[in-house]
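To the structural biology subgroup,

Please find below the input and predicted structure for ROK family protein, which we are adding to the shared reference set this quarter. The sequence is reproduced verbatim from the submission form. If anyone notices a discrepancy with their own records, reply to this email rather than editing the shared folder directly, so we keep one authoritative version.
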Amino acid sequence: MNRSLVLEAIKAAGQISRARVAEQVGLTKPTVSAIVDALLHEGVLRELGPGATAALGGRRPILLEFDSSSEYVVGVGVGVRRTAIVVANGRGVEVARTTFATPRSSPATALAKIASRTAATIAEAGVDADLVVGTGVVVPGLVDADQSTCLLAPNLGWRDVPVRELVSRQLGGQIFVHNTSQAAAVAESVEGAAVGVGDVVLLYASHGVGAGILADRRVFHGFRGLAGEIGHCVVPGASEPCRCGKRGCVETLASGPALARAGARAVEVGLATSIRPGARGKVTSEAVSAAAHAGDLVALQILADAGRVLGIAASWLVNVVNPAAVVVAGGLAEIGPPLLDPLEASLREHVLPQAASGLLVRRSALGQDAAVRGAVLLARQNTESYYRVVFRG
Ligand SMILES: [Zn+2]
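Predicted structure (tokenized):
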């Protein structure tokens, strides 16, 4: 346990002397020296030579650095359409990436394919699989993080899928399973639109709608990991059936499929619009977005209506959580101002004025990459916190 304290202090500092590590972690210098010697011998650390400043009258201390090629983490972002796999070194820097169409087969077969693509990506990067300490798997659905099970992912047709069990047949190291919104929230707060903000709500609007809540930089999971499922809160007066089994949920009014349905209805009833069905004869959310960007008033109204519903949903989250920043992510955020401007206006209109004061509302900076970067970062965070839990327990 002392070893992980020492290692974490060195990772956090970048470059640091043995004496400073001892001060920071509260261990004696001989204890720190013995641990550092072992870590140097194992190739986890390296010595950089004397630092620039010396203690008064003493020698200049030798600086130590974590060797970022001594361990790796992997992020697997399973999307409704595409899956991305990123292999990253111990500092979280990407060293290899693969993307491919998400397999459309039974959950067990799909996860076996994803696991074998992951193993292949690790091998192609020239990384020794034994050095992979953790893999984060992010899925678009309800996830029980403790059990590492996907409880429900309607867009993939998954229900009660033991994700960790299935991928661990082919992958070593620890495996963690999270949902897309939670992972995207972590990524945006570490390296995206809300860097340095501790209390963040990320509203993820794509095929479905969800939210990731960070309280003091950590994901707030709730009892079964379902915290943030704002997409399945009911909008008063709405009655469209939802894939969760209820009616009138937020995502029946404001999601990719909801935009497509609204566009198709506008065409059907003969409104004056440039929205056109695509190659398969169906109106898509992309067709609605394209028409809006070309100035089509019907399409602009559809996006504004969806934005307003998302703004109301965000106002519920803001009043409950009181975050410093709301980040809007997912495919709907990429539509830009025709959806985001009405969203922010509606959010500010419906939230307590005191909670709106100083509140940042931002569009995702990482875009499509947020989920897989979150998977990498959560794998790093979780492998570190594992030691902390054991240490305290
Ligand atoms: Zn629902």
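Summary notes: Residues 195-365 form a domain with the Nucleotidyltransferase; domain 5 fold (CATH 3.30.420.40). Residues 297-321 form the longest helix (25 residues).

Regards,
Lab coordination
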